[in-house]
Amino acid sequence: MAGIPDEIAGSLIGDILSGRYQVRDRLPSERDLATRFSANRGAVREAMKKLEQIGLAEIQPGGARVKDTSEASLDVLGHMLGQGDLPDALLVDQILVVINSLLSVAAEQTLELASENELASIRALTLPFLEDKLSDEAHTLARFELMRSIMLTNKNLPLQLIAKTLFEQVAPHLAHLKQHVVIDHDAFATFARQLDRALAERDLPAVHATFTAFSNLNRESMLRAFERARRQAREASLS
Amino acid sequence: MAGIPDEIAGSLIGDILSGRYQVRDRLPSERDLATRFSANRGAVREAMKKLEQIGLAEIQPGGARVKDTSEASLDVLGHMLGQGDLPDALLVDQILVVINSLLSVAAEQTLELASENELASIRALTLPFLEDKLSDEAHTLARFELMRSIMLTNKNLPLQLIAKTLFEQVAPHLAHLKQHVVIDHDAFATFARQLDRALAERDLPAVHATFTAFSNLNRESMLRAFERARRQAREASLS
DNA sequence: CCGACCAAATTGGTCAGACCAAAATTCACG
DNA sequence: CGTGAATTTTGGTCTGACCAATTTGGTCGG
User: Fold this and answer.
1) Which residues touch B179 (CB under 8 Å, ≥6 apart)?
2) pLDDT tens column, A105-143
3) Chain segment B43-82, per-residue pLDDT in tens
4) Cβ(B92)–Cβ(B222) under 8 Å?
5) What is the rounded CA–CA span in Å between residue B155 and residue A239?
6) What count of other Cβ atoms lies within 10 Å of the Cβ of residue A20?
7) Straight-line distance from CA A58 to C1' D26, in Å?
8) Terminus-to-terminus CA distance in chain B, angstroms?
9) Which of A188, B86, B158, B234 is the most exposed place for a label (fewest CB within 10 A)?
10) Residues 46-65, chain A: which have Cβ under 7 A from strand C?
C-alpha cells in the first residue's frame, strides 16, 4: 500500500528534516539512490519529484539541492510533526493559532453571506456543548463538527483548502495526544452560548471575540496535553 | 525549460478545470495519454503524479479519477486563476480576504512576541505611505514590503508558508491587472498612521481594526481594477 | 600562484519495451 | 436475470539506453 517511491521520499524527507542533509547540500544522484534503496531509477525519480513538490528540494540538471523549510509547501508540516516521538508542541500551537484565526474569518464571512437556514444549522451545532454528561469523545466530535460546518458553510474556497490541509497535516499526529487532553466542559459551554448569541444577532465583533476565546481554550488544553504526554514519557523511560 | 511532464500536466489540468473531464470521471490511461501526447509513458506518469499531488486526480490501479476542486491542494488556485483571459474576480477577492486576515494574525502575534527593534523596523515601513509624491509603482512596492515584513517578523512557520503560497499563486495573474489599479493614496496614508500608532502602543484591537480597513482598501481597489479591465476588454472586442 | 578555458565525467530528462498485481470488464453459467 | 469466474485493462515497477545540461578536473596562459 505504501509504494516504493513514497518510502524513498519519506526516508529522504526524514534525512533532510533531521539535518543529515543541510540546506543547499546536493542530494545523492538518482542513480546512487536507486542503488542504495535497491529500487529502480524511475521510482527514485518519482520520490525526488515529490520532494520537489513538497518544496524540500530543487531539482536541476547537474544535481538536486536541499531547500530551506521556509520555502517549502504546507505539506512539510505533516512531516515535521512526524519527526520525533512527540510532535513539536510549538509547531502544533502555531498551527492552532492559524486554524482558529481562519475559523474566525470563516465565521465572520458567514455572518455576511450565509442564509438564515445555514446560520441556524450552525447554531444547532453549539447545542451539544450545553449538555451535562457529554463524554470526552463526543465533545471532541462535536468540536470538529462545529469547525467543519463553519468552514464548509463559508463559500471561500481558498479558506476551505487551507483549513483542510492544515487539519490533514496535524490530525494524524494528534491522535496519540488525545488521551492526554482534558476538556474544560464549562468553559466550552460558555463559549457555545456566546457563539450562539453572536451568530443569532449577527454580531461581528462578538463572533471575533468568541473565537479568540475558543482559540485560547484549544491552545491551552493542547499545551497541557503535551505536558502530560511528556511527563508520562519521562516516567516510562525511568522504568 | 517547460518540461514534457509539465506540459502534459498543464493540458490535463486545463481539461479538468474547464470541465472537459467531470468529477469522478476516469482519465484516459497512461498508455493512451502517452500516445496522444507523443511522449513516453514515464513522462505521462510524472504528469499524473503531479495531478495527484495537486489533488485534482486520484490514482489507483485500474484507473485515475478526477477529484473535486474542494479536495485539492492550495496549488490549484494558481491554475484556476489562469483559466480564462482574466482571473476569476471572486476567487481573487476570496484570496485577498484570507491573506489580509493572515496579516492581521501575524501582526497580532508580532505585538505579543516581537522585540522593540523588530517592531520599530516594521513601523518604519509605514513611512513611505505618508510621502506626498509616491508613484503607483513605489506605492505597490511599499505595500508588498510592509506585508512581507509582517509575515517574516512573525515566527509562525505555518503562517509564513500559507502566505507565501497564496502570494505565489495569485501574483503572476495579477500582473496584467496592475495597470488598471488606481491607488487611493489618502486612504492608505490614514491606514499607515493608524497602523503605526497601534504598533507603537501595542494596541491589539486597534491593529485588528487597522488591518480590516487595509483589507477593505485592497479588496475594493482590486474589484475596481477588475471592472476597468473588463470594460477595456469589451471595448477591444468591439473594434 | 591564480584565473580562464576546455574536455571528460556526472547528472537529470526522456525514451523504449517488458513483467507483475490489482482493478475493471466481459462473458459463460446457473 | 443475476452471479461468479476468466480475461482484459490499468497502474506499479524494473532494465537498459541515449541526449543535453551541468559539474568537475585539468590544462594552459598570464
Assistant:
1) none
2) 999 899 888 889 999 999 999 999 888 778 888 888 899
3) 999 999 999 999 999 999 989 999 999 999 999 999 999 9
4) yes
5) 38
6) 11
7) 29
8) 37
9) B234
10) 48, 59-64
